[in-house]
Amino acid sequence: MAFDLRPTVRQRITRLTSYVVFVAIVVVLALIANWPSLATNFADLKVAKTLWPDILLTAGNTIWYTVICFVLGLVLAVLFALMKMSKGPFGWFATAYIELFRGLPALLTIIFMAFAFPIAFPGLKLPGGALSGGLVALVIVTSAYTAEIIRAGVEAVPKGQTEAARSLGMGNLRTTFTVILPQAFRIVIPPLTNEFVTLLKDTSLLYMAGMTIMQRELTTFAKAKMSENFNSTPLIAVALMYLIITIPLTYLVGRLEKSMAAKK
Amino acid sequence: MSEKTLHPRDTPVPGAPPVQLIDLHKHFGQLHVLKGINLTVEKGEVVCVIGPSGSGKSTLLRSVNLLEHPTGGQVLIEGIDIQDPDINLDRIRARIGMVFQSFNLFPHMNVLRNVTVAQQTVLKRSPQEAHDVAMAMLDRVGLTDKITAHPSQLSGGQQQRVAIARSLSMNPDIMLFDEPTSALDPELVGDVLTVMRQLAADGMTMLVVTHEMAFARDVADRVIFMDDGQIVEEGPPSQVIAAPKEERTQVFLQRVLDPTHVRELGETEPDDDALARKSSH
Protein backbone atom coordinates (compact mmCIF):
# COMPACT_ATOMS: atom_id res chain seq x y z
CA MET A 1 0.00 0.00 0.00
CA ALA A 2 1.69 3.10 1.31
CA PHE A 3 5.19 1.81 0.71
CA ASP A 4 4.44 1.58 -3.03
CA LEU A 5 3.81 5.32 -3.23
CA ARG A 6 6.33 7.96 -4.25
CA PRO A 7 8.20 9.53 -1.28
CA THR A 8 6.63 12.98 -1.80
CA VAL A 9 3.13 11.56 -1.80
CA ARG A 10 3.90 9.45 1.24
CA GLN A 11 5.22 12.53 3.06
CA ARG A 12 2.06 14.44 2.27
CA ILE A 13 -0.12 11.60 3.59
CA THR A 14 1.92 11.37 6.81
CA ARG A 15 1.62 15.09 7.41
CA LEU A 16 -2.11 15.12 6.72
CA THR A 17 -2.66 12.19 9.07
CA SER A 18 -0.83 13.85 11.93
CA TYR A 19 -2.88 17.04 11.45
CA VAL A 20 -6.10 15.06 11.49
CA VAL A 21 -5.09 13.20 14.66
CA PHE A 22 -4.05 16.47 16.37
CA VAL A 23 -7.28 18.28 15.47
CA ALA A 24 -9.34 15.25 16.52
CA ILE A 25 -7.72 15.19 19.98
CA VAL A 26 -8.31 18.94 20.47
CA VAL A 27 -11.95 18.63 19.36
CA VAL A 28 -12.62 15.66 21.63
CA LEU A 29 -11.05 17.42 24.64
CA ALA A 30 -13.07 20.57 23.88
CA LEU A 31 -16.26 18.54 23.66
CA ILE A 32 -15.82 16.62 26.92
CA ALA A 33 -14.57 19.67 28.90
CA ASN A 34 -17.02 21.34 31.20
CA TRP A 35 -16.81 24.90 29.82
CA PRO A 36 -19.17 26.68 32.23
CA SER A 37 -17.35 25.12 35.18
CA LEU A 38 -13.97 26.06 33.71
CA ALA A 39 -15.12 29.62 33.24
CA THR A 40 -16.41 30.05 36.78
CA ASN A 41 -13.47 28.27 38.41
CA PHE A 42 -10.53 29.56 36.39
CA ALA A 43 -11.65 32.76 34.69
CA ASP A 44 -13.89 34.52 37.15
CA LEU A 45 -13.46 38.22 36.42
CA LYS A 46 -14.88 39.25 39.81
CA VAL A 47 -12.21 37.21 41.57
CA ALA A 48 -9.57 38.49 39.16
CA LYS A 49 -10.45 42.08 40.13
CA THR A 50 -9.84 41.39 43.82
CA LEU A 51 -6.24 40.39 42.97
CA TRP A 52 -5.42 43.88 41.76
CA PRO A 53 -3.14 45.62 42.76
CA ASP A 54 -1.68 43.16 45.30
CA ILE A 55 -0.56 40.90 42.50
CA LEU A 56 1.92 43.58 41.44
CA LEU A 57 3.45 43.70 44.92
CA THR A 58 3.83 39.93 44.96
CA ALA A 59 5.27 39.88 41.44
CA GLY A 60 7.73 42.49 42.69
CA ASN A 61 8.62 40.20 45.59
CA THR A 62 9.16 37.29 43.22
CA ILE A 63 11.54 39.35 41.10
CA TRP A 64 13.27 40.79 44.15
CA TYR A 65 13.88 37.32 45.69
CA THR A 66 15.13 36.02 42.34
CA VAL A 67 17.57 38.89 41.85
CA ILE A 68 18.95 38.68 45.41
CA CYS A 69 19.41 34.91 45.23
CA PHE A 70 20.88 35.10 41.73
CA VAL A 71 23.45 37.77 42.58
CA LEU A 72 24.53 36.16 45.87
CA GLY A 73 24.49 32.76 44.15
CA LEU A 74 26.68 34.09 41.36
CA VAL A 75 29.29 35.40 43.80
CA LEU A 76 29.34 32.06 45.62
CA ALA A 77 29.39 30.23 42.29
CA VAL A 78 32.53 32.04 41.09
CA LEU A 79 34.19 31.12 44.37
CA PHE A 80 33.17 27.46 44.13
CA ALA A 81 34.04 27.23 40.43
CA LEU A 82 37.56 28.54 41.12
CA MET A 83 37.86 26.22 44.11
CA LYS A 84 36.74 23.23 42.09
CA MET A 85 39.36 23.93 39.44
CA SER A 86 42.09 24.10 42.07
CA LYS A 87 43.81 21.00 43.35
CA GLY A 88 43.72 19.80 46.93
CA PRO A 89 41.16 20.02 49.76
CA PHE A 90 39.39 23.14 48.40
CA GLY A 91 38.69 21.31 45.16
CA TRP A 92 37.26 18.34 47.03
CA PHE A 93 35.10 20.57 49.19
CA ALA A 94 33.71 22.42 46.16
CA THR A 95 32.97 19.16 44.37
CA ALA A 96 31.14 17.80 47.41
CA TYR A 97 29.13 21.01 47.80
CA ILE A 98 28.13 21.14 44.14
CA GLU A 99 27.19 17.46 43.92
CA LEU A 100 25.22 17.60 47.18
CA PHE A 101 23.02 20.56 46.32
CA ARG A 102 22.52 19.62 42.69
CA GLY A 103 21.57 16.13 43.83
CA LEU A 104 18.90 17.23 46.31
CA PRO A 105 15.45 18.55 45.39
CA ALA A 106 15.42 22.32 45.93
CA LEU A 107 12.27 21.92 48.02
CA LEU A 108 14.10 19.66 50.48
CA THR A 109 16.93 22.18 50.89
CA ILE A 110 14.39 24.96 51.49
CA ILE A 111 12.54 22.96 54.15
CA PHE A 112 15.82 22.11 55.79
CA MET A 113 17.09 25.68 55.88
CA ALA A 114 13.75 27.14 56.98
CA PHE A 115 12.98 24.67 59.76
CA ALA A 116 15.94 22.47 60.65
CA PHE A 117 18.59 25.16 60.50
CA PRO A 118 17.10 27.37 63.28
CA ILE A 119 16.77 24.28 65.48
CA ALA A 120 20.36 23.26 64.83
CA PHE A 121 21.75 26.77 65.35
CA PRO A 122 19.36 28.60 67.72
CA GLY A 123 21.89 31.40 68.19
CA LEU A 124 21.87 32.38 64.50
CA LYS A 125 18.80 34.53 63.96
CA LEU A 126 18.22 35.64 60.39
CA PRO A 127 16.13 38.79 59.89
CA GLY A 128 12.86 38.08 58.10
CA GLY A 129 12.09 34.79 59.84
CA ALA A 130 11.62 31.45 58.11
CA LEU A 131 11.56 33.09 54.67
CA SER A 132 15.23 34.08 55.03
CA GLY A 133 16.08 30.45 55.66
CA GLY A 134 14.30 29.60 52.42
CA LEU A 135 16.16 32.33 50.56
CA VAL A 136 19.48 31.09 51.91
CA ALA A 137 18.53 27.65 50.60
CA LEU A 138 17.81 29.07 47.15
CA VAL A 139 21.15 30.90 47.13
CA ILE A 140 22.88 27.62 47.94
CA VAL A 141 21.01 25.64 45.31
CA THR A 142 21.49 28.17 42.54
CA SER A 143 25.18 28.64 43.41
CA ALA A 144 25.77 24.91 42.95
CA TYR A 145 24.29 24.94 39.44
CA THR A 146 25.88 28.26 38.51
CA ALA A 147 29.31 27.09 39.69
CA GLU A 148 29.22 24.32 37.09
CA ILE A 149 28.10 26.79 34.40
CA ILE A 150 30.98 29.14 35.22
CA ARG A 151 33.50 26.33 35.33
CA ALA A 152 32.41 25.25 31.85
CA GLY A 153 32.79 28.86 30.68
CA VAL A 154 36.27 29.21 32.14
CA GLU A 155 37.33 25.98 30.49
CA ALA A 156 36.01 27.21 27.16
CA VAL A 157 38.39 30.21 27.16
CA PRO A 158 41.38 29.29 24.96
CA LYS A 159 44.57 28.31 26.79
CA GLY A 160 46.51 30.96 24.87
CA GLN A 161 44.68 33.68 26.82
CA THR A 162 46.13 32.47 30.10
CA GLU A 163 49.56 32.09 28.51
CA ALA A 164 49.47 35.62 27.10
CA ALA A 165 48.44 37.09 30.46
CA ARG A 166 51.01 35.11 32.43
CA SER A 167 53.78 35.96 29.96
CA LEU A 168 52.98 39.65 30.58
CA GLY A 169 53.67 39.07 34.26
CA MET A 170 50.07 38.93 35.51
CA GLY A 171 49.61 36.69 38.52
CA ASN A 172 47.18 33.81 38.73
CA LEU A 173 44.37 35.82 40.36
CA ARG A 174 44.92 38.86 38.15
CA THR A 175 44.78 36.65 35.05
CA THR A 176 41.58 35.02 36.28
CA PHE A 177 39.73 38.23 37.02
CA THR A 178 41.05 40.47 34.24
CA VAL A 179 41.35 38.07 31.33
CA ILE A 180 39.58 34.75 31.90
CA LEU A 181 36.36 35.48 33.82
CA PRO A 182 35.20 38.38 31.60
CA GLN A 183 35.46 36.09 28.58
CA ALA A 184 33.94 33.14 30.43
CA PHE A 185 30.88 35.23 31.39
CA ARG A 186 30.26 36.15 27.76
CA ILE A 187 30.34 32.48 26.83
CA VAL A 188 27.89 31.42 29.56
CA ILE A 189 25.26 34.14 29.17
CA PRO A 190 22.71 31.73 27.63
CA PRO A 191 22.98 29.04 30.35
CA LEU A 192 23.08 31.77 33.02
CA THR A 193 19.78 33.12 31.70
CA ASN A 194 18.30 29.64 31.88
CA GLU A 195 19.46 29.43 35.47
CA PHE A 196 17.87 32.82 36.21
CA VAL A 197 14.54 31.68 34.77
CA THR A 198 14.74 28.38 36.65
CA LEU A 199 15.49 30.28 39.85
CA LEU A 200 12.57 32.61 39.24
CA LYS A 201 10.26 29.62 39.00
CA ASP A 202 11.90 27.98 42.03
CA THR A 203 11.00 30.98 44.20
CA SER A 204 7.50 29.43 44.12
CA LEU A 205 8.89 26.73 46.40
CA LEU A 206 9.39 29.37 49.09
CA TYR A 207 5.71 28.92 50.04
CA MET A 208 6.94 25.93 52.09
CA ALA A 209 9.02 28.25 54.26
CA GLY A 210 6.00 30.38 55.14
CA MET A 211 5.91 34.16 54.99
CA THR A 212 4.03 37.24 56.12
CA ILE A 213 1.48 38.93 53.85
CA MET A 214 3.97 41.59 52.81
CA GLN A 215 6.57 38.94 52.01
CA ARG A 216 4.35 36.83 49.75
CA GLU A 217 5.62 35.90 46.31
CA LEU A 218 3.32 34.97 43.40
CA THR A 219 2.60 31.31 44.16
CA THR A 220 2.02 31.82 47.90
CA PHE A 221 -0.25 34.72 47.00
CA ALA A 222 -2.18 32.58 44.51
CA LYS A 223 -2.67 29.78 47.01
CA ALA A 224 -3.95 32.18 49.66
CA LYS A 225 -6.36 33.87 47.24
CA MET A 226 -7.60 30.49 45.99
CA SER A 227 -8.64 29.38 49.45
CA GLU A 228 -10.08 32.81 50.23
CA ASN A 229 -12.35 32.73 47.17
CA PHE A 230 -12.84 28.97 46.71
CA ASN A 231 -11.84 29.67 43.13
CA SER A 232 -8.83 28.87 40.93
CA THR A 233 -8.76 32.11 38.93
CA PRO A 234 -5.72 33.44 40.91
CA LEU A 235 -3.72 30.49 39.56
CA ILE A 236 -4.31 31.62 35.97
CA ALA A 237 -3.59 35.25 36.83
CA VAL A 238 -0.32 34.32 38.51
CA ALA A 239 0.63 32.03 35.63
CA LEU A 240 0.23 34.98 33.29
CA MET A 241 2.42 37.11 35.56
CA TYR A 242 5.20 34.49 35.44
CA LEU A 243 5.02 34.42 31.65
CA ILE A 244 5.00 38.22 31.42
CA ILE A 245 8.32 38.19 33.32
CA THR A 246 10.05 35.17 31.78
CA ILE A 247 9.23 35.49 28.08
CA PRO A 248 10.60 39.05 27.58
CA LEU A 249 13.65 37.99 29.57
CA THR A 250 14.57 35.16 27.22
CA TYR A 251 13.85 37.44 24.26
CA LEU A 252 16.08 40.17 25.68
CA VAL A 253 18.97 37.81 26.23
CA GLY A 254 18.63 36.48 22.72
CA ARG A 255 19.12 40.01 21.44
CA LEU A 256 21.98 40.67 23.85
CA GLU A 257 23.74 37.56 22.59
CA LYS A 258 23.31 38.66 19.01
CA SER A 259 24.69 42.14 19.61
CA MET A 260 27.65 40.71 21.50
CA ALA A 261 28.36 38.23 18.74
CA ALA A 262 28.37 41.17 16.32
CA LYS A 263 30.80 43.09 18.53
CA LYS A 264 33.06 40.09 18.78
CA MET B 1 48.60 40.67 44.32
CA SER B 2 51.04 39.35 46.85
CA GLU B 3 54.55 40.64 46.40
CA LYS B 4 57.20 38.26 47.57
CA THR B 5 59.96 39.89 49.54
CA LEU B 6 63.01 40.78 47.53
CA HIS B 7 65.38 37.86 47.60
CA PRO B 8 69.07 38.22 46.78
CA ARG B 9 68.57 35.51 44.16
CA ASP B 10 65.85 37.71 42.68
CA THR B 11 68.21 40.43 41.44
CA PRO B 12 69.94 40.28 38.05
CA VAL B 13 73.61 39.36 38.11
CA PRO B 14 75.59 42.20 36.45
CA GLY B 15 77.01 41.12 33.13
CA ALA B 16 75.05 37.87 32.99
CA PRO B 17 73.57 36.99 29.58
CA PRO B 18 69.82 37.71 29.15
CA VAL B 19 69.06 34.03 28.54
CA GLN B 20 71.06 31.00 29.48
CA LEU B 21 69.73 27.45 29.21
CA ILE B 22 71.83 24.74 30.83
CA ASP B 23 71.33 21.05 29.98
CA LEU B 24 67.59 21.58 29.57
CA HIS B 25 65.34 18.52 29.40
CA LYS B 26 61.60 18.26 28.90
CA HIS B 27 59.46 15.14 29.02
CA PHE B 28 55.78 14.98 28.13
CA GLY B 29 55.00 11.63 29.73
CA GLN B 30 57.06 9.11 27.77
CA LEU B 31 57.95 11.66 25.11
CA HIS B 32 61.42 13.17 25.47
CA VAL B 33 60.99 16.54 23.75
CA LEU B 34 64.14 18.40 24.80
CA LYS B 35 67.29 16.35 25.21
CA GLY B 36 69.85 18.48 26.98
CA ILE B 37 69.76 21.92 25.40
CA ASN B 38 72.58 24.37 26.12
CA LEU B 39 71.99 27.83 24.76
CA THR B 40 73.13 31.33 25.63
CA VAL B 41 71.65 34.47 24.13
CA GLU B 42 73.84 37.55 24.57
CA LYS B 43 72.56 41.07 25.04
CA GLY B 44 71.40 42.60 21.76
CA GLU B 45 71.74 39.31 19.94
CA VAL B 46 69.10 37.98 17.51
CA VAL B 47 68.96 34.21 17.58
CA CYS B 48 66.71 32.32 15.16
CA VAL B 49 65.70 28.74 15.87
CA ILE B 50 64.80 26.66 12.83
CA GLY B 51 63.94 23.02 12.38
CA PRO B 52 61.15 20.63 11.37
CA SER B 53 57.82 20.48 13.22
CA GLY B 54 58.02 18.46 16.38
CA SER B 55 61.72 19.13 16.80
CA GLY B 56 61.08 20.85 20.15
CA LYS B 57 61.79 24.44 19.13
CA SER B 58 58.51 25.84 20.49
CA THR B 59 58.95 23.91 23.73
CA LEU B 60 62.44 25.36 23.99
CA LEU B 61 61.13 28.89 23.55
CA ARG B 62 58.26 28.36 26.02
CA SER B 63 60.75 27.10 28.61
CA VAL B 64 62.49 30.47 28.64
CA ASN B 65 59.59 32.10 30.54
CA LEU B 66 58.45 28.83 32.10
CA LEU B 67 55.20 28.49 30.18
CA GLU B 68 56.58 24.96 29.99
CA HIS B 69 58.32 23.69 33.10
CA PRO B 70 61.49 21.82 32.19
CA THR B 71 61.91 18.38 33.72
CA GLY B 72 65.66 18.89 34.04
CA GLY B 73 68.32 21.55 33.74
CA GLN B 74 68.39 25.26 34.47
CA VAL B 75 66.90 28.41 32.99
CA LEU B 76 68.86 31.54 33.90
CA ILE B 77 67.45 34.96 33.03
CA GLU B 78 70.09 37.64 33.56
CA GLY B 79 71.75 35.20 35.91
CA ILE B 80 68.59 34.50 37.95
CA ASP B 81 67.57 30.87 38.27
CA ILE B 82 63.86 31.29 37.51
CA GLN B 83 62.93 27.81 38.68
CA ASP B 84 63.85 28.86 42.21
CA PRO B 85 60.52 28.83 44.10
CA ASP B 86 61.67 31.82 46.19
CA ILE B 87 61.83 34.25 43.29
CA ASN B 88 58.90 36.22 41.97
CA LEU B 89 58.38 34.63 38.57
CA ASP B 90 55.76 37.17 37.51
CA ARG B 91 58.30 39.96 37.83
CA ILE B 92 60.76 38.05 35.64
CA ARG B 93 58.07 37.25 33.07
CA ALA B 94 57.15 40.93 32.84
CA ARG B 95 60.67 41.58 31.52
CA ILE B 96 60.38 38.85 28.87
CA GLY B 97 58.10 39.79 25.98
CA MET B 98 56.42 36.92 24.18
CA VAL B 99 54.68 36.89 20.82
CA PHE B 100 52.58 33.85 19.97
CA GLN B 101 51.70 32.17 16.70
CA SER B 102 47.99 32.73 17.37
CA PHE B 103 48.44 36.36 18.64
CA ASN B 104 46.40 35.74 21.82
CA LEU B 105 45.14 39.28 22.07
CA PHE B 106 42.42 39.75 24.69
CA PRO B 107 39.23 39.72 22.58
CA HIS B 108 37.08 41.53 25.16
CA MET B 109 39.34 44.59 25.21
CA ASN B 110 40.00 47.12 22.49
CA VAL B 111 43.46 47.59 21.03
CA LEU B 112 44.46 50.38 23.42
CA ARG B 113 43.30 48.43 26.49
CA ASN B 114 45.18 45.36 25.27
CA VAL B 115 48.36 47.39 25.32
CA THR B 116 47.73 49.27 28.59
CA VAL B 117 46.21 46.61 30.86
CA ALA B 118 49.42 44.85 31.88
CA GLN B 119 51.30 48.14 32.20
CA GLN B 120 48.78 49.31 34.76
CA THR B 121 48.18 46.04 36.64
CA VAL B 122 51.70 44.61 36.59
CA LEU B 123 54.00 47.62 36.36
CA LYS B 124 51.54 49.88 38.28
CA ARG B 125 51.92 52.67 35.75
CA SER B 126 49.39 55.50 35.90
CA PRO B 127 46.63 55.45 33.26
CA GLN B 128 48.20 58.48 31.60
CA GLU B 129 51.68 56.97 31.47
CA ALA B 130 50.34 53.62 30.24
CA HIS B 131 48.39 55.44 27.54
CA ASP B 132 51.44 57.40 26.40
CA VAL B 133 53.63 54.30 26.27
CA ALA B 134 50.90 52.38 24.42
CA MET B 135 50.54 55.12 21.83
CA ALA B 136 54.30 55.20 21.32
CA MET B 137 54.44 51.43 20.82
CA LEU B 138 51.39 51.36 18.55
CA ASP B 139 53.05 54.09 16.53
CA ARG B 140 56.11 51.90 16.25
CA VAL B 141 54.03 49.10 14.69
CA GLY B 142 51.99 51.58 12.63
CA LEU B 143 48.57 51.06 14.20
CA THR B 144 47.72 54.27 16.06
CA ASP B 145 44.54 54.60 13.96
CA LYS B 146 43.13 51.34 15.34
CA ILE B 147 43.15 52.01 19.07
CA THR B 148 39.38 51.70 19.54
CA ALA B 149 39.02 48.60 17.36
CA HIS B 150 38.52 45.18 18.89
CA PRO B 151 40.94 42.42 17.89
CA SER B 152 38.31 40.62 15.80
CA GLN B 153 38.02 43.70 13.59
CA LEU B 154 41.71 43.51 12.65
CA SER B 155 43.53 41.38 10.12
CA GLY B 156 45.90 38.70 11.39
CA GLY B 157 48.89 40.85 10.55
CA GLN B 158 47.45 43.82 12.44
CA GLN B 159 46.62 41.61 15.43
CA GLN B 160 50.16 40.31 15.53
CA ARG B 161 51.56 43.86 15.41
CA VAL B 162 49.29 44.84 18.32
CA ALA B 163 50.58 41.78 20.17
CA ILE B 164 54.14 42.97 19.55
CA ALA B 165 53.22 46.46 20.79
CA ARG B 166 51.61 44.89 23.88
CA SER B 167 54.85 43.07 24.69
CA LEU B 168 57.04 46.08 23.94
CA SER B 169 54.97 48.31 26.22
CA MET B 170 56.37 46.36 29.17
CA ASN B 171 59.90 47.51 28.24
CA PRO B 172 61.16 43.94 28.02
CA ASP B 173 64.85 43.08 28.06
CA ILE B 174 64.21 40.08 25.82
CA MET B 175 61.61 39.29 23.18
CA LEU B 176 60.53 35.75 22.38
CA PHE B 177 58.76 35.03 19.10
CA ASP B 178 57.01 31.70 18.62
CA GLU B 179 56.44 31.33 14.87
CA PRO B 180 54.92 34.83 14.71
CA THR B 181 54.03 34.69 11.02
CA SER B 182 52.94 31.05 10.65
CA ALA B 183 49.23 31.78 11.11
CA LEU B 184 49.20 34.72 8.70
CA ASP B 185 48.03 34.97 5.12
CA PRO B 186 51.12 35.24 2.89
CA GLU B 187 50.45 38.87 1.96
CA LEU B 188 50.35 39.92 5.64
CA VAL B 189 53.66 38.33 6.64
CA GLY B 190 55.74 41.22 5.33
CA ASP B 191 54.33 43.87 7.70
CA VAL B 192 55.08 41.77 10.77
CA LEU B 193 58.58 40.90 9.59
CA THR B 194 59.27 44.59 8.91
CA VAL B 195 58.38 45.42 12.51
CA MET B 196 60.62 42.61 13.73
CA ARG B 197 63.50 43.74 11.53
CA GLN B 198 63.18 47.25 12.93
CA LEU B 199 63.17 45.85 16.45
CA ALA B 200 66.36 43.91 15.75
CA ALA B 201 67.96 47.01 14.25
CA ASP B 202 67.09 48.89 17.47
CA GLY B 203 69.22 46.42 19.40
CA MET B 204 66.52 44.26 21.04
CA THR B 205 67.62 40.88 22.32
CA MET B 206 65.48 38.41 20.37
CA LEU B 207 64.93 34.66 20.34
CA VAL B 208 62.83 33.76 17.31
CA VAL B 209 61.37 30.42 16.31
CA THR B 210 60.59 30.80 12.64
CA HIS B 211 60.12 29.17 9.28
CA GLU B 212 61.02 32.39 7.49
CA MET B 213 64.46 31.51 6.14
CA ALA B 214 64.92 34.88 4.49
CA PHE B 215 64.34 36.60 7.81
CA ALA B 216 66.74 34.27 9.61
CA ARG B 217 69.36 34.78 6.92
CA ASP B 218 69.13 38.58 6.92
CA VAL B 219 68.45 39.43 10.55
CA ALA B 220 69.85 36.68 12.77
CA ASP B 221 73.25 36.99 14.38
CA ARG B 222 73.09 33.28 15.01
CA VAL B 223 70.94 30.48 13.64
CA ILE B 224 70.19 27.32 15.56
CA PHE B 225 69.01 24.21 13.78
CA MET B 226 67.09 21.82 16.01
CA ASP B 227 65.95 18.31 15.29
CA ASP B 228 64.61 15.62 17.57
CA GLY B 229 65.00 17.65 20.75
CA GLN B 230 68.63 18.55 20.19
CA ILE B 231 70.63 21.41 18.77
CA VAL B 232 72.16 19.86 15.68
CA GLU B 233 74.03 22.85 14.33
CA GLU B 234 74.49 26.48 15.26
CA GLY B 235 76.41 29.44 13.91
CA PRO B 236 76.02 32.59 11.85
CA PRO B 237 73.44 32.33 9.05
CA SER B 238 76.20 32.48 6.48
CA GLN B 239 77.28 29.13 7.83
CA VAL B 240 74.12 27.32 9.00
CA ILE B 241 71.81 28.42 6.19
CA ALA B 242 74.25 29.05 3.35
CA ALA B 243 76.72 26.23 4.02
CA PRO B 244 75.36 23.72 6.56
CA LYS B 245 77.81 21.05 7.72
CA GLU B 246 75.36 18.57 9.21
CA GLU B 247 73.44 16.26 6.94
CA ARG B 248 70.16 16.77 8.82
CA THR B 249 70.46 20.53 8.37
CA GLN B 250 71.16 20.10 4.69
CA VAL B 251 68.13 17.87 4.19
CA PHE B 252 65.85 20.26 6.08
CA LEU B 253 67.09 23.33 4.23
CA GLN B 254 66.89 21.58 0.91
CA ARG B 255 63.24 20.90 1.62
CA VAL B 256 62.30 24.43 2.72
CA LEU B 257 64.49 26.26 0.21
CA ASP B 258 63.67 24.03 -2.77
CA PRO B 259 62.21 26.41 -5.41
CA THR B 260 59.14 24.17 -5.78
CA HIS B 261 58.53 24.54 -2.05
CA VAL B 262 59.36 28.22 -1.68
CA ARG B 263 55.71 29.34 -1.73
CA GLU B 264 55.03 26.97 1.17
CA LEU B 265 57.67 28.56 3.38
CA GLY B 266 56.40 28.70 6.89
CA GLU B 267 53.67 26.15 6.38
CA THR B 268 55.64 23.11 5.33
CA GLU B 269 55.21 19.99 7.37
CA PRO B 270 57.88 17.31 7.36
CA ASP B 271 57.13 14.83 4.58
CA ASP B 272 56.95 11.10 5.07
CA ASP B 273 60.65 10.70 4.33
CA ALA B 274 61.55 13.16 7.06
CA LEU B 275 59.29 11.42 9.55
CA ALA B 276 60.68 8.03 8.68
CA ARG B 277 64.19 9.41 9.01
CA LYS B 278 63.33 10.84 12.41
CA SER B 279 61.83 7.66 13.82
CA SER B 280 64.87 5.67 12.66
CA HIS B 281 67.09 7.80 14.91
In short:
With 264 residues, chain A is mainly alpha-helical. Chain A is built from 12 helices and no strands. The relative contact order of chain A is 0.12.
List the helices and strands and how they pair.
The complex is a heterodimer of chains A (264) and B (281).
Chain A: H1 7-32, H2 35-42, H3 45-51, H4 54-85, H5 89-103, H6 106-120, H7 130-156, H8 159-167, H9 172-187, H10 189-202, H11 218-229, H12 233-263
Chain B: E1 19-28, E2 31-41, E3 46-50, H1 57-64, E4 72-77, E5 80-81, H2 89-94, E6 96-99, H3 111-121, H4 127-140, H5 156-168, E7 174-178, H6 186-201, E8 205-209, H7 213-219, E9 222-227, E10 230-235, H8 237-240, H9 247-257, H10 272-279
Parallel strand pairs in B: 3-8, 3-9, 6-7, 7-8
Antiparallel strand pairs in B: 1-2, 1-4, 4-5, 9-10
Helix pairs in contact in B: 3-4, 3-5, 4-5, 5-6
The end-to-end span of chain A amounts to 55 Å
Instruction: Categorize the overall geometry of chain B.
Output: globular
Give the strand content of chain B.
15-25%
Mean pLDDT of chain B: 89
Describe the largest sheet of chain B. 6 strands, mixed
The number of helical segments of chain B is 10
What's the alpha carbon Rg of chain A, rounded to whole Å?
25 Å
Would you report the number of β strands of chain A? 0
Q: What's the number of helices of chain A? A: 12
Coarse shape of chain A: globular
Distance between the termini of chain B: 48 Å
Chain pair sharing the greatest interface? A-B, 21 and 31 residues
Overall SS class of chain A: mainly alpha
**Low-confidence segments of chain A, ≥5 residues, pLDDT <50?**
none
Q: Oligomeric form of this entry?
A: heterodimer
Strand order of the largest sheet of chain B: 6-7-8-3-9-10
Give the % helix of chain B. Answer: 25-40%
Number of strands of chain B: 10
